[in-house]
Amino acid sequence: MPVNSKITFVQILFLVISGAFFNAHAQSILDTEMSIDADKKPLGSILDLMEQKGNFRFAYYSKLVVKDSAVTIHSKQSTIKDVLDQLLGNKYEYKESKGFVILRYAPLELALVLEKNSVVGEHQVVNGYIMDVKTNKRLENASVYEKNALQSTLTDKDGFFELKLKNVPETIELTVIKENYKTITTIFLSEIKIQMGSRKSSSSSDYVDGDFSAVERTGIGRFFISSKQKIQSLNLGGFISEVPVQASLIPSLSTRGMMNSQINSSFSLNLLGGYTGGVRGLEMAGLYNINRMNVNALQMAGIFNTVGGSVNGVQLAGIYNNVFGDLRGLQMSGIHNSVKGSQAGLQVTGIYNNVHGDSRGVQVAGIHNTVKGSQNGLQISGIYNTGNEKVRGAQIAGLFNYAKELDGIQFGLVNITDSPSGYSFGLLNFKKNGYQKISITRNEISDINLAVKTGDNKLYTILTAGKSERTNEEKLFSFGIGLGKNIPLGKRFTYNMEISTQYLYLGNWDYYNFLYKFDSPFTFRLFKGVAISAGPSFTIYSSEKRDKTIPGNSTSTFVQDRTKRYNVIKDNGKGLTGWVGWSFGISLF
């Protein structure tokens, strides 16, 4: 298409239609030769074979590359680019970055038409329009950016764009990219005279593999990130540039404009909030930081930090931290920390920590910790912890712990695991194929004793309560906790070793009375769910000496009267006695 004749160029160097993000060495993988022979094989398996032969990886959106489609190819010592052309046709373009070949779906072609290239004050003003090659229709929301100056814009509804470039390098590179269109780059000389020893660009560019648009689809992203910034990010994909410093007032008002989402800086300052590509160093914000890609930094915000890639470093926020990739380091917030990938390090928050992948480290929360993958480390919470896969380590909760598969220790009032392994310490412990019994027994002290035993054969906990009475006015109540071990002796016989501590109420709460018991009953299973038990026991009784002139203290003889025939440790005047006793009863379940 002819260029507007009213506009003149001082110097046009050349026009290139090619990939926008290639480095000088970017053809090294695509120029590698290999032979591929396949008849009606899935496309995915052929791509896997090419990765093995060429020692590189493909990156692409699976919904845009049909991996299970059957293809036939017989290619002898052809370049990887030629092989891809045979497999994919002309509907894709290829980019290289650090051992990857990125397949970008681009079946359509666009054209850049320059209308103006002139100097206005200290700026080089470049404008024109973008159009579809096939239909000649002008294209809205195409990204036009200058690679060296790191300035960009979007075309309007008429396909028009204008860039005012400051600190222009000698060579201007205008790159145009739009979803589903092949990328083009136009290179020409600036009209601003270049002085000897002129400043070199302090930035460098690369292409980062991955879908980093997840942060834009969140509620926070929809609220804080403008539609133009989202379109720019969609068009430019993984293009990233390195600069030393960036600053923002809010995401739409920053030193790099709409290019901020493609910027990786060493120092990032966001007075209220900012939306950047990533950080390698330090990032601070009065209210919030939003990063589209990766953060290797100390990141601090008054309200929240959210990162679309991974974090290696420290995140500190008054309310909320969120990482869509992996966390290697520390997250600390007032309310909530979240990691969509895996975590290795420490999470500390006032209410809730969440890891969607695997965790190797420590979680500390006021209310709740959860790991949806496997956990290797420690969970500490005020209310409850959950591990949805294998837990290697410890769970400590004020109320409740859950582990799908336990290879460690649980401490909590209630502990649940779907596996028979590990150790659970709590008032109630429920395990797969575990030991859950209700025992009703009688012993030398209690006329009736009820015990709930939960855990497994190697270790179970005991909750016990008993009652006895000698007259209507003379009653004894006991309650306590203990630990036990069940040892199978045969198909129907088992032996139990149990230790417990019980408090005795003898009519007055002002004096302590404690039993320290070792029980060793033998159990015979009558039929499924019902067993009888009997066996010896040894008890040490510790009681506080009482003034018998005080009403209510006459019951202090209750224990002595019931156990004097069994005594082996006589009262030495300090309230300590011991005896050999017995128990028998029935067990249910």
Describe the structure.
- It comes from Flavobacterium johnsoniae (Cytophaga johnsonae).
- Keywords: Signal.
- This is Carboxypeptidase-like protein.
- The protein has 589 residues and is mostly beta strands.
- It has 3 domains: 192 residues, Immunoglobulins (Immunoglobulin-like), CATH 2.60.40; 218 residues, no CATH class; 152 residues, Beta Barrel (Porin), CATH 2.40.160.
- 7% of the residues lie in helices and 55% in strands.
- The chain is built from 5 helices and 47 strands.
- It has a 24-stranded mixed sheet that branches. Strands 38, 39, 40, 41, 42, 43, 44, 45, 46 and 47 form a 10-stranded antiparallel sheet that branches.
- The chain is elongated, with a radius of gyration of 37 Å.
- The N and C termini lie far apart (87 Å).
- The relative contact order is 0.05.
Helical content stands at under 10%
Number of strands: 47
Total number of helices: 5
**Mean pLDDT across residues:** 84
Structural class: mainly beta
**Computed CA radius of gyration, to the nearest angstrom:** 37 Å
User: Beta fraction of the residues?
Assistant: over 45%
